[in-house]
Protein: Sugar ABC transporter substrate-binding protein
Amino acid sequence: MNQQLKKWLPTGIVAVMGMSLLAGCGSTTPAPVTDASKPAAAKPFEGKKLTVVTANHPWGEAIKPLIPEFEAQSGMKVELQSFFEDQLTQKLTVQFTSNSATPDVFMYRPLQEGKLFYKNGWVQALDEFTSKDANYDFGDFTKSSIGSTTVDGKLAGIPIITEQEILYYRKDLLQKANIAVPKTIDELIAAVKKLHDPKAEMYGFVARGQRSPLVTQVSSFLYSEGGDFTKGDKATINSPEAIKAFTTYSSLLKDYAPPGVLNMSWPQALGIFAQGKVAFITDANSLYKNVTDPEKSTVSDKVGYALFPGGAAGSKPYNITSWGLAMNAKTANKDASWEFIKWASSKDVVLKTQKLGNPGARTSVWEKPDGVSGFPAEMVQVIKDSAKGGIDHDRPVLIGVGEARDVVGGVVLQGITGGDIKAAADKANEELQAIMDKEKGK
Structure:
Protein backbone atom coordinates (compact mmCIF):
# COMPACT_ATOMS: atom_id res chain seq x y z
CA MET A 1 0.00 0.00 0.00
CA ASN A 2 1.54 3.36 -0.88
CA GLN A 3 2.33 5.83 1.84
CA GLN A 4 0.08 8.52 0.34
CA LEU A 5 -3.06 6.48 1.02
CA LYS A 6 -2.08 5.38 4.52
CA LYS A 7 -2.83 8.75 6.08
CA TRP A 8 -6.55 8.16 5.72
CA LEU A 9 -6.50 4.78 7.44
CA PRO A 10 -7.21 4.15 11.14
CA THR A 11 -4.84 1.70 12.79
CA GLY A 12 -5.85 -1.57 14.37
CA ILE A 13 -5.35 -5.28 14.40
CA VAL A 14 -7.98 -7.85 13.67
CA ALA A 15 -7.78 -11.62 13.60
CA VAL A 16 -8.61 -13.19 10.27
CA MET A 17 -11.77 -15.18 10.67
CA GLY A 18 -11.45 -18.87 9.88
CA MET A 19 -13.56 -20.48 7.21
CA SER A 20 -14.58 -24.13 6.97
CA LEU A 21 -15.88 -26.18 4.10
CA LEU A 22 -18.22 -29.08 4.63
CA ALA A 23 -17.11 -32.18 2.73
CA GLY A 24 -19.60 -34.62 1.28
CA CYS A 25 -19.20 -38.32 2.04
CA GLY A 26 -19.45 -41.11 -0.46
CA SER A 27 -21.20 -44.45 0.06
CA THR A 28 -19.85 -47.97 -0.48
CA THR A 29 -23.29 -49.48 -0.92
CA PRO A 30 -25.09 -49.57 -4.28
CA ALA A 31 -27.08 -46.46 -5.01
CA PRO A 32 -30.84 -46.91 -4.94
CA VAL A 33 -32.81 -46.60 -8.14
CA THR A 34 -34.28 -43.09 -8.43
CA ASP A 35 -37.12 -41.65 -10.44
CA ALA A 36 -35.42 -39.97 -13.42
CA SER A 37 -38.46 -37.75 -13.93
CA LYS A 38 -37.72 -36.00 -10.62
CA PRO A 39 -34.08 -34.88 -10.73
CA ALA A 40 -32.63 -33.32 -7.59
CA ALA A 41 -32.29 -29.54 -7.66
CA ALA A 42 -28.74 -28.49 -8.49
CA LYS A 43 -26.94 -26.66 -5.70
CA PRO A 44 -23.49 -25.80 -7.06
CA PHE A 45 -22.50 -23.97 -3.87
CA GLU A 46 -23.55 -26.71 -1.47
CA GLY A 47 -21.45 -26.50 1.70
CA LYS A 48 -20.06 -23.02 1.06
CA LYS A 49 -20.19 -20.44 3.84
CA LEU A 50 -20.29 -16.69 3.28
CA THR A 51 -19.84 -13.83 5.71
CA VAL A 52 -21.97 -10.84 4.73
CA VAL A 53 -21.75 -7.53 6.57
CA THR A 54 -24.50 -4.91 6.38
CA ALA A 55 -25.15 -1.53 7.95
CA ASN A 56 -27.89 -1.04 10.52
CA HIS A 57 -30.14 0.18 7.74
CA PRO A 58 -33.72 -0.62 6.65
CA TRP A 59 -32.32 -2.53 3.65
CA GLY A 60 -30.38 -4.79 5.99
CA GLU A 61 -33.52 -5.44 8.00
CA ALA A 62 -35.45 -6.16 4.80
CA ILE A 63 -32.89 -8.64 3.44
CA LYS A 64 -32.43 -10.56 6.68
CA PRO A 65 -35.70 -12.59 6.57
CA LEU A 66 -35.03 -13.41 2.90
CA ILE A 67 -31.65 -15.07 3.58
CA PRO A 68 -33.16 -18.56 4.22
CA GLU A 69 -34.63 -18.38 0.72
CA PHE A 70 -31.16 -17.79 -0.73
CA GLU A 71 -29.62 -20.52 1.41
CA ALA A 72 -32.23 -23.02 0.21
CA GLN A 73 -31.65 -22.10 -3.45
CA SER A 74 -27.87 -22.04 -3.38
CA GLY A 75 -26.97 -24.58 -0.70
CA MET A 76 -24.81 -21.95 1.01
CA LYS A 77 -24.82 -20.86 4.62
CA VAL A 78 -24.77 -17.10 5.18
CA GLU A 79 -23.45 -15.52 8.36
CA LEU A 80 -25.01 -12.05 8.48
CA GLN A 81 -23.42 -9.34 10.63
CA SER A 82 -24.71 -5.81 11.11
CA PHE A 83 -23.08 -2.61 12.40
CA PHE A 84 -23.84 1.09 12.74
CA GLU A 85 -22.43 3.23 9.90
CA ASP A 86 -19.27 4.50 11.60
CA GLN A 87 -18.62 1.11 13.21
CA LEU A 88 -19.07 -0.55 9.82
CA THR A 89 -16.50 1.66 8.10
CA GLN A 90 -14.01 1.17 10.93
CA LYS A 91 -14.51 -2.60 11.01
CA LEU A 92 -14.06 -2.95 7.26
CA THR A 93 -10.99 -0.70 7.21
CA VAL A 94 -9.29 -2.64 10.01
CA GLN A 95 -10.03 -6.03 8.45
CA PHE A 96 -8.99 -5.00 4.96
CA THR A 97 -5.79 -3.38 6.26
CA SER A 98 -4.88 -6.74 7.78
CA ASN A 99 -5.61 -8.52 4.47
CA SER A 100 -8.54 -10.45 5.90
CA ALA A 101 -10.45 -12.69 3.51
CA THR A 102 -13.65 -11.86 5.38
CA PRO A 103 -16.20 -10.51 5.07
CA ASP A 104 -16.85 -11.94 1.62
CA VAL A 105 -19.55 -9.40 0.77
CA PHE A 106 -20.22 -6.08 2.44
CA MET A 107 -22.51 -3.08 2.33
CA TYR A 108 -20.71 0.22 1.73
CA ARG A 109 -21.24 3.89 0.83
CA PRO A 110 -19.83 4.29 -2.70
CA LEU A 111 -19.39 8.06 -2.59
CA GLN A 112 -17.94 8.17 0.91
CA GLU A 113 -15.44 5.31 0.98
CA GLY A 114 -15.74 3.68 -2.45
CA LYS A 115 -12.70 5.36 -4.00
CA LEU A 116 -10.51 4.69 -0.96
CA PHE A 117 -11.53 1.03 -0.83
CA TYR A 118 -10.99 0.52 -4.56
CA LYS A 119 -7.67 2.37 -4.75
CA ASN A 120 -6.33 0.28 -1.87
CA GLY A 121 -7.20 -2.93 -3.71
CA TRP A 122 -9.81 -3.99 -1.17
CA VAL A 123 -12.69 -4.23 -3.62
CA GLN A 124 -13.09 -6.74 -6.42
CA ALA A 125 -14.11 -5.18 -9.75
CA LEU A 126 -17.41 -6.78 -10.81
CA ASP A 127 -17.49 -5.97 -14.54
CA GLU A 128 -16.80 -9.55 -15.67
CA PHE A 129 -19.46 -11.00 -13.36
CA THR A 130 -22.37 -8.85 -14.56
CA SER A 131 -22.27 -10.28 -18.07
CA LYS A 132 -22.20 -13.95 -17.10
CA ASP A 133 -25.95 -14.33 -16.73
CA ALA A 134 -28.22 -12.57 -19.25
CA ASN A 135 -31.17 -12.98 -16.90
CA TYR A 136 -29.48 -10.68 -14.40
CA ASP A 137 -30.18 -7.82 -16.85
CA PHE A 138 -27.44 -5.43 -15.76
CA GLY A 139 -28.79 -2.85 -18.19
CA ASP A 140 -31.87 -2.53 -15.98
CA PHE A 141 -29.89 -0.47 -13.44
CA THR A 142 -30.16 3.29 -13.85
CA LYS A 143 -27.17 5.03 -15.42
CA SER A 144 -26.68 7.37 -12.46
CA SER A 145 -26.71 4.55 -9.91
CA ILE A 146 -23.96 2.73 -11.80
CA GLY A 147 -22.03 5.98 -12.14
CA SER A 148 -21.94 6.26 -8.36
CA THR A 149 -20.41 2.80 -7.95
CA THR A 150 -17.85 3.14 -10.76
CA VAL A 151 -14.22 4.04 -9.95
CA ASP A 152 -11.68 4.70 -12.69
CA GLY A 153 -13.99 3.07 -15.21
CA LYS A 154 -14.40 -0.12 -13.18
CA LEU A 155 -17.53 -1.36 -11.44
CA ALA A 156 -16.62 -1.40 -7.74
CA GLY A 157 -20.05 -2.38 -6.43
CA ILE A 158 -23.71 -2.98 -7.22
CA PRO A 159 -26.30 -0.32 -6.25
CA ILE A 160 -28.88 -1.34 -3.66
CA ILE A 161 -30.18 1.99 -2.30
CA THR A 162 -30.64 5.13 -4.37
CA GLU A 163 -31.37 8.65 -3.25
CA GLN A 164 -32.37 11.96 -4.80
CA GLU A 165 -32.63 15.44 -3.33
CA ILE A 166 -36.21 16.69 -3.51
CA LEU A 167 -38.28 19.59 -2.24
CA TYR A 168 -40.57 18.91 0.72
CA TYR A 169 -43.27 21.51 1.36
CA ARG A 170 -46.34 22.19 3.45
CA LYS A 171 -49.35 21.75 1.19
CA ASP A 172 -51.70 23.53 3.57
CA LEU A 173 -49.52 26.64 3.83
CA LEU A 174 -49.11 26.98 0.09
CA GLN A 175 -52.82 26.51 -0.48
CA LYS A 176 -53.78 29.08 2.16
CA ALA A 177 -51.36 31.66 0.72
CA ASN A 178 -52.32 30.81 -2.88
CA ILE A 179 -48.72 29.94 -3.76
CA ALA A 180 -47.92 27.48 -6.55
CA VAL A 181 -45.38 24.75 -5.87
CA PRO A 182 -42.00 26.30 -6.81
CA LYS A 183 -40.49 24.96 -10.01
CA THR A 184 -37.43 27.20 -10.02
CA ILE A 185 -34.99 28.38 -7.37
CA ASP A 186 -36.19 31.95 -7.85
CA GLU A 187 -39.78 30.83 -7.23
CA LEU A 188 -38.63 28.94 -4.14
CA ILE A 189 -36.93 32.05 -2.73
CA ALA A 190 -40.06 34.14 -3.37
CA ALA A 191 -42.31 31.56 -1.67
CA VAL A 192 -39.94 31.24 1.30
CA LYS A 193 -40.00 35.01 1.83
CA LYS A 194 -43.78 35.12 1.72
CA LEU A 195 -44.29 32.30 4.23
CA HIS A 196 -41.52 33.29 6.64
CA ASP A 197 -43.09 34.56 9.87
CA PRO A 198 -40.69 34.02 12.80
CA LYS A 199 -42.95 35.91 15.23
CA ALA A 200 -45.48 33.12 14.76
CA GLU A 201 -42.67 30.50 14.92
CA MET A 202 -43.06 29.77 11.23
CA TYR A 203 -39.85 29.76 9.24
CA GLY A 204 -39.60 29.80 5.48
CA PHE A 205 -36.84 27.27 4.90
CA VAL A 206 -34.56 24.78 6.58
CA ALA A 207 -31.80 22.44 5.42
CA ARG A 208 -28.60 20.98 6.78
CA GLY A 209 -26.34 23.67 8.22
CA GLN A 210 -23.49 21.64 9.70
CA ARG A 211 -20.23 22.07 7.81
CA SER A 212 -19.77 18.55 6.42
CA PRO A 213 -23.40 17.32 6.19
CA LEU A 214 -24.54 20.38 4.22
CA VAL A 215 -22.22 19.60 1.31
CA THR A 216 -24.38 16.82 -0.11
CA GLN A 217 -27.47 19.02 -0.02
CA VAL A 218 -25.92 22.15 -1.51
CA SER A 219 -24.74 19.95 -4.38
CA SER A 220 -28.12 20.03 -6.14
CA PHE A 221 -28.12 23.83 -5.99
CA LEU A 222 -24.63 23.73 -7.51
CA TYR A 223 -25.55 21.37 -10.36
CA SER A 224 -28.78 23.21 -11.12
CA GLU A 225 -26.79 26.41 -11.67
CA GLY A 226 -24.50 24.56 -14.09
CA GLY A 227 -21.55 24.01 -11.74
CA ASP A 228 -19.79 21.12 -10.03
CA PHE A 229 -17.16 20.62 -7.34
CA THR A 230 -14.53 19.64 -9.89
CA LYS A 231 -14.04 19.48 -13.64
CA GLY A 232 -11.45 16.99 -14.77
CA ASP A 233 -8.34 17.59 -12.67
CA LYS A 234 -9.41 21.08 -11.61
CA ALA A 235 -11.29 22.28 -8.52
CA THR A 236 -14.20 24.53 -9.51
CA ILE A 237 -15.82 25.65 -6.28
CA ASN A 238 -15.02 29.32 -6.96
CA SER A 239 -16.69 29.40 -10.38
CA PRO A 240 -19.52 31.94 -10.90
CA GLU A 241 -22.00 29.05 -10.86
CA ALA A 242 -20.64 27.71 -7.57
CA ILE A 243 -20.63 31.12 -5.89
CA LYS A 244 -24.22 31.70 -6.97
CA ALA A 245 -25.32 28.31 -5.60
CA PHE A 246 -23.46 28.72 -2.31
CA THR A 247 -24.88 32.23 -1.92
CA THR A 248 -28.44 31.03 -2.48
CA TYR A 249 -28.16 28.15 -0.02
CA SER A 250 -26.41 30.16 2.69
CA SER A 251 -28.80 33.11 2.31
CA LEU A 252 -31.84 30.86 2.68
CA LEU A 253 -30.40 29.48 5.91
CA LYS A 254 -29.11 32.82 7.23
CA ASP A 255 -32.31 34.77 6.58
CA TYR A 256 -35.17 32.28 6.73
CA ALA A 257 -34.16 29.26 8.83
CA PRO A 258 -34.95 28.55 12.50
CA PRO A 259 -32.37 29.38 15.19
CA GLY A 260 -29.56 26.86 15.59
CA VAL A 261 -29.32 25.92 11.92
CA LEU A 262 -25.52 25.73 12.11
CA ASN A 263 -25.94 22.68 14.34
CA MET A 264 -28.39 20.91 12.07
CA SER A 265 -27.77 17.75 10.07
CA TRP A 266 -30.72 15.85 8.60
CA PRO A 267 -32.28 14.60 11.89
CA GLN A 268 -32.53 18.12 13.30
CA ALA A 269 -33.64 19.78 10.05
CA LEU A 270 -36.30 17.20 9.26
CA GLY A 271 -37.29 17.14 12.92
CA ILE A 272 -38.17 20.82 13.07
CA PHE A 273 -40.03 20.53 9.76
CA ALA A 274 -41.99 17.63 11.27
CA GLN A 275 -42.87 19.86 14.23
CA GLY A 276 -44.79 22.11 11.84
CA LYS A 277 -42.47 25.10 12.12
CA VAL A 278 -41.07 25.27 8.57
CA ALA A 279 -42.63 25.72 5.14
CA PHE A 280 -39.90 24.19 2.91
CA ILE A 281 -36.98 21.82 3.24
CA THR A 282 -34.71 20.25 0.64
CA ASP A 283 -33.22 16.86 1.52
CA ALA A 284 -33.08 13.21 0.48
CA ASN A 285 -36.26 11.46 -0.61
CA SER A 286 -35.19 8.36 1.33
CA LEU A 287 -35.82 10.20 4.61
CA TYR A 288 -39.48 10.93 3.94
CA LYS A 289 -40.83 8.71 6.73
CA ASN A 290 -39.37 11.13 9.25
CA VAL A 291 -42.01 13.68 8.23
CA THR A 292 -44.90 11.38 7.32
CA ASP A 293 -44.95 9.08 10.34
CA PRO A 294 -47.76 10.33 12.62
CA GLU A 295 -45.74 9.26 15.65
CA LYS A 296 -42.88 11.56 14.60
CA SER A 297 -44.66 14.34 12.73
CA THR A 298 -47.43 16.79 13.56
CA VAL A 299 -47.84 17.53 9.84
CA SER A 300 -47.80 13.97 8.53
CA ASP A 301 -50.87 14.53 6.36
CA LYS A 302 -49.80 17.96 5.10
CA VAL A 303 -46.48 17.15 3.41
CA GLY A 304 -46.03 17.58 -0.31
CA TYR A 305 -43.13 16.48 -2.55
CA ALA A 306 -41.76 18.18 -5.65
CA LEU A 307 -38.89 17.95 -8.10
CA PHE A 308 -35.86 19.92 -6.98
CA PRO A 309 -36.36 23.48 -8.28
CA GLY A 310 -34.45 24.43 -11.39
CA GLY A 311 -31.67 26.98 -11.69
CA ALA A 312 -29.87 28.38 -14.73
CA ALA A 313 -29.14 24.82 -15.93
CA GLY A 314 -32.59 23.46 -15.07
CA SER A 315 -33.42 20.95 -12.34
CA LYS A 316 -30.35 18.78 -11.71
CA PRO A 317 -30.64 17.09 -8.33
CA TYR A 318 -28.19 14.47 -7.25
CA ASN A 319 -29.39 10.97 -8.16
CA ILE A 320 -26.96 8.68 -6.39
CA THR A 321 -26.31 5.26 -4.98
CA SER A 322 -26.15 5.89 -1.26
CA TRP A 323 -25.49 2.21 -0.44
CA GLY A 324 -24.06 -0.59 -2.52
CA LEU A 325 -22.86 -4.19 -2.19
CA ALA A 326 -19.21 -4.97 -2.85
CA MET A 327 -16.98 -8.03 -2.88
CA ASN A 328 -13.81 -8.38 -0.84
CA ALA A 329 -10.91 -8.66 -3.29
CA LYS A 330 -9.26 -11.19 -0.94
CA THR A 331 -12.23 -13.53 -0.60
CA ALA A 332 -11.55 -17.14 -1.48
CA ASN A 333 -15.18 -17.48 -2.60
CA LYS A 334 -15.54 -15.04 -5.50
CA ASP A 335 -18.13 -17.04 -7.46
CA ALA A 336 -20.14 -17.73 -4.32
CA SER A 337 -19.89 -14.08 -3.28
CA TRP A 338 -21.15 -12.96 -6.67
CA GLU A 339 -24.00 -15.44 -6.40
CA PHE A 340 -25.14 -13.64 -3.23
CA ILE A 341 -24.73 -10.16 -4.74
CA LYS A 342 -26.57 -11.27 -7.87
CA TRP A 343 -29.44 -12.65 -5.81
CA ALA A 344 -29.65 -9.66 -3.44
CA SER A 345 -29.77 -7.23 -6.38
CA SER A 346 -32.02 -9.34 -8.61
CA LYS A 347 -35.34 -7.96 -9.85
CA ASP A 348 -37.29 -10.24 -7.55
CA VAL A 349 -35.41 -9.32 -4.38
CA VAL A 350 -35.25 -5.62 -5.24
CA LEU A 351 -39.03 -5.70 -5.62
CA LYS A 352 -39.41 -7.28 -2.18
CA THR A 353 -37.10 -4.78 -0.46
CA GLN A 354 -38.47 -1.79 -2.36
CA LYS A 355 -42.03 -2.62 -1.30
CA LEU A 356 -40.80 -1.93 2.23
CA GLY A 357 -39.66 1.58 1.31
CA ASN A 358 -36.06 0.92 0.22
CA PRO A 359 -35.58 2.81 -3.07
CA GLY A 360 -33.68 0.53 -5.43
CA ALA A 361 -31.84 1.14 -8.69
CA ARG A 362 -33.72 -1.11 -11.13
CA THR A 363 -35.83 0.76 -13.67
CA SER A 364 -38.21 -2.17 -14.23
CA VAL A 365 -39.13 -2.37 -10.53
CA TRP A 366 -40.15 1.30 -10.49
CA GLU A 367 -42.60 0.52 -13.29
CA LYS A 368 -44.38 -2.18 -11.28
CA PRO A 369 -47.37 -1.26 -9.07
CA ASP A 370 -45.87 -3.34 -6.25
CA GLY A 371 -42.54 -1.61 -6.73
CA VAL A 372 -43.94 1.81 -5.88
CA SER A 373 -46.39 0.70 -3.19
CA GLY A 374 -43.92 1.54 -0.41
CA PHE A 375 -43.83 5.24 -1.31
CA PRO A 376 -46.35 8.11 -1.32
CA ALA A 377 -47.96 8.26 -4.76
CA GLU A 378 -46.99 11.91 -5.20
CA MET A 379 -43.35 11.09 -4.49
CA VAL A 380 -43.13 8.27 -7.02
CA GLN A 381 -43.38 10.61 -9.99
CA VAL A 382 -40.89 12.98 -8.38
CA ILE A 383 -38.40 10.12 -8.03
CA LYS A 384 -38.88 9.08 -11.65
CA ASP A 385 -38.46 12.66 -12.87
CA SER A 386 -35.40 13.17 -10.68
CA ALA A 387 -33.75 10.11 -12.16
CA LYS A 388 -34.00 11.51 -15.69
CA GLY A 389 -31.56 14.39 -15.24
CA GLY A 390 -29.88 13.54 -11.97
CA ILE A 391 -26.16 13.73 -11.22
CA ASP A 392 -24.37 10.59 -9.98
CA HIS A 393 -22.49 12.20 -7.07
CA ASP A 394 -23.40 14.52 -4.20
CA ARG A 395 -19.92 15.45 -2.96
CA PRO A 396 -16.37 15.72 -4.34
CA VAL A 397 -15.40 12.20 -5.41
CA LEU A 398 -11.99 11.90 -3.79
CA ILE A 399 -10.12 9.53 -1.50
CA GLY A 400 -9.93 12.24 1.14
CA VAL A 401 -13.63 12.96 0.84
CA GLY A 402 -13.98 14.00 4.49
CA GLU A 403 -11.28 16.64 4.13
CA ALA A 404 -12.81 17.84 0.86
CA ARG A 405 -16.28 18.13 2.39
CA ASP A 406 -14.92 20.30 5.20
CA VAL A 407 -13.29 22.59 2.64
CA VAL A 408 -16.51 23.03 0.63
CA GLY A 409 -18.72 23.31 3.70
CA GLY A 410 -16.55 26.11 5.03
CA VAL A 411 -17.53 28.31 2.09
CA VAL A 412 -21.23 27.94 2.85
CA LEU A 413 -20.65 28.56 6.56
CA GLN A 414 -19.03 31.87 5.66
CA GLY A 415 -22.23 32.84 3.88
CA ILE A 416 -24.51 31.72 6.71
CA THR A 417 -22.51 33.76 9.21
CA GLY A 418 -22.38 36.83 6.97
CA GLY A 419 -18.84 36.41 5.64
CA ASP A 420 -17.41 37.02 2.15
CA ILE A 421 -18.36 34.00 0.06
CA LYS A 422 -16.20 34.97 -2.93
CA ALA A 423 -13.08 35.30 -0.81
CA ALA A 424 -13.88 32.07 1.03
CA ALA A 425 -14.51 30.25 -2.26
CA ASP A 426 -11.20 31.39 -3.75
CA LYS A 427 -9.27 30.18 -0.70
CA ALA A 428 -11.24 26.92 -0.53
CA ASN A 429 -10.67 26.25 -4.22
CA GLU A 430 -6.91 26.37 -3.65
CA GLU A 431 -7.27 23.95 -0.75
CA LEU A 432 -9.43 21.56 -2.75
CA GLN A 433 -6.99 21.71 -5.65
CA ALA A 434 -4.16 20.81 -3.29
CA ILE A 435 -6.09 17.75 -2.12
CA MET A 436 -6.72 16.72 -5.71
CA ASP A 437 -3.07 17.25 -6.75
CA LYS A 438 -1.90 15.16 -3.80
CA GLU A 439 -4.13 12.27 -4.88
CA LYS A 440 -3.45 12.53 -8.61
CA GLY A 441 -2.12 9.27 -9.94
CA LYS A 442 -2.45 7.49 -6.62
